Amino acid sequence: MQYRVGYDNGPLKLSDLHIDFSHMGGKMCYDLQYEIPDIKCQVCGRNSMCLIQYVSQKSSDSLHRIVYVFLCNSAHYRDSIRVLTYNKNIIVPEKDTSVSITAPTWEEDIDMNNLLGMTAQMQTAAPAPAPNVFKQNTPLDPIEFKVRKQNTCLEPHDIFTENTESKMNDFFQGAVDVIMDGENTKFTDVLLTQFNGACFIAGYDRNPLSFQKCISKLFKGQFEEDKYKLNRNFEEAEEAEEIEVINDNGPDVSIDDKCDCKFCKEFHQKYVHEMDLFSTMIWVLKMDQSEESAEFKAIYVFGSRNLENGIHEGCAVAMDDDEDVKELLKELKKKKEKEEAKNQKASEI
Ligand SMILES: [Zn+2]
Ligand SMILES: [Zn+2]
């Protein structure tokens, strides 16, 4: 299972949402067959918002699996995150082998008229399907679904994903040059400069993209991002004064190392890593417009490992975007002070 990186692919209409596809924001599409649990915020009781509906990489011809992440768009978002996974095992009709149309073998000097003639022949030559064959070829039944009722929702956005395995390997081997400002560059920041604009990175049963491989420690908020600094050489950039070029020699972590403490062993039996959501999502979904909003740098999402039909609870760990919030507050304070000074001057005149 490879890592895939997901980007915003533009806004959607609510009427475009479908249970077969992934989207960010918007509302949850759910199978009519199953009751969805109450998804209210534990802190304020408001309806939690759908942050993402993602068709899991585990999905196949015989399994439709979706991961939903909900949260309350508020400063207490951490206590409201809910992860649900939905599975529908699909009975795939057997491929019909009783009727076979032999493809013509092309002669080297074939002309167009001849080709059209052959196509016409192929169509008329195909025998009418026998009744049992017809039945076997019925397309898969579409899943009957409903869109979850919510008064408000985040603007729905389409997603496109692409494979990122080689870039991720390079990243973990340190074969990247990263331009960051300051010494406080963190693992997630470096990751996000490599995947500019990425809203999430999905890797089924791979590691969450945090330096901390021990899930128990992750849940305790020990992200240990500073370890990333260990193998670095700083070189001064020629032009920009405050920007340094980091020749990263590679962190001491292999891409698939897993912690084998007792907690992690049990955790991995119950849950499986699905994806990591990044703060870019906040800007895409315009979540920062409310006075108090979720300010995460990353949310590491784990679905239930259970593949049986139905809806199962997963879990998630969030890393706050503390620094950015602090910076933003500082800027706002400065702006306010400037304005006040201006107003004072104006009133003095
Ligand atoms: Zn709330
Ligand atoms: Zn562990």
Question: Could you walk me through the main structural features you see in this protein, from its secondary elements to its overall organization?
Answer:
The structure is a single chain. With 349 residues, the chain is an alpha+beta fold. Helices cover 24% and strands 27% of the residues. It has eight helices and 16 strands. An eleven-stranded antiparallel β-sheet has the order 15-6-5-4-2-8-1-10-13-14-16. Strands 9-12-11 form a three-stranded antiparallel β-sheet. The radius of gyration is 26 Å and the shape is globular. Mean pLDDT is 79; it is low at 106-137 and 229-247. The structure holds zinc ion (ZN) (2 copies). One zinc ion binds at residues 214-216, 259, 261, 263-264.
Fill in the keyword field for this structure.
16 strands, 11-stranded antiparallel sheet, 8 helices, globular, binds zinc ion, alpha+beta, 3-stranded antiparallel sheet, 349 residues
Briefly summarize what is shown.
The protein has helices at 112-125, 131-136, 165-173, 187-194, 215-219, 262-270, 280-284, 322-348; strands spanning 4-11, 23-24, 29-31, 49-55, 63-71, 82-89, 145-147, 157-163, 177-181, 200-202, 232-236, 243-248, 271-278, 296-304, 310-313, 315-320.
